[in-house]
Design a protein that fits this description.
Elements: H1 3-11, H2 15-36, H3 46-70
Length: about 70
């Protein structure tokens, strides 16, 4: 990958999507935790797990978007 492609890929990164997906995950986990009483929020480093999932979703969305624009 040359530098131009890498920079254009970084321009497609969406911090808004990262924040919204993180909030969405927290809400879904709170609902599931409330229904089933799993105490997921009590896991050590829980916020890092949620951030990692939100970041993975955002990166996959970004690659999918760039791939679909090429075809």
């Amino acid at each position: 990958m040359d530098t131009g492609n890498f920079i254009s890929l970084l321009k497609k990164f969406s911090f808004g999507r990262l924040i919204v997906s993180g909030i969405f995950l927290r809400v879904v986990i709170a609902i599931v935790d409330g229904i089933f009483g799993l105490e997921i929020n009590e896991l050590p480093n829980f916020n890092f797990y949620v951030f990692g999932l939100a970041l993975a979703y955002t990166i996959l969305w970004m690659f999918n978007k760039s791939y679909s624009e090429e075809n």
